[in-house]
Write a structure and sequence with these properties.
single chain; mainly alpha; 76% helix; 0% strand; rod-shaped; c-terminal domain of poly(a) binding protein
Length: 122
Amino acid sequence: MVRIRGAMAAQKRKKRILKDAKGQFGHRSTRYRQAIRSVVKGLAYQFRDRKVKKREFRRLWIIRINAACQEQGINYSRFINGLAKAEVGIDRKMLADLAIHSPEVFNKLVEVSKEAQTEKAK
């Protein structure tokens, strides 16, 4: 009867965890038990922050659009409402980019939005 040892598998597992913990501060990168905790926590943060990133970018785009709208004398909600009524299908990411890099195009969109609001009000 042959005795089977799990040394190679355990060594591989430890090596993988320590490789993932590389760059962590202090003993988190060198001690296996602490590295496991650190890697698991890091993966949890990674999962969570992929969702948070999307929220934060949307907030940033809205802030940029609002700032550009304020210069044109309209607020953000009326601008977006006017674009919806005019059936303009531009997302917030593109609107924020237009507001920064080509203000003249953004100003035309503001005019379209204002016209759509006045037409629907009649």
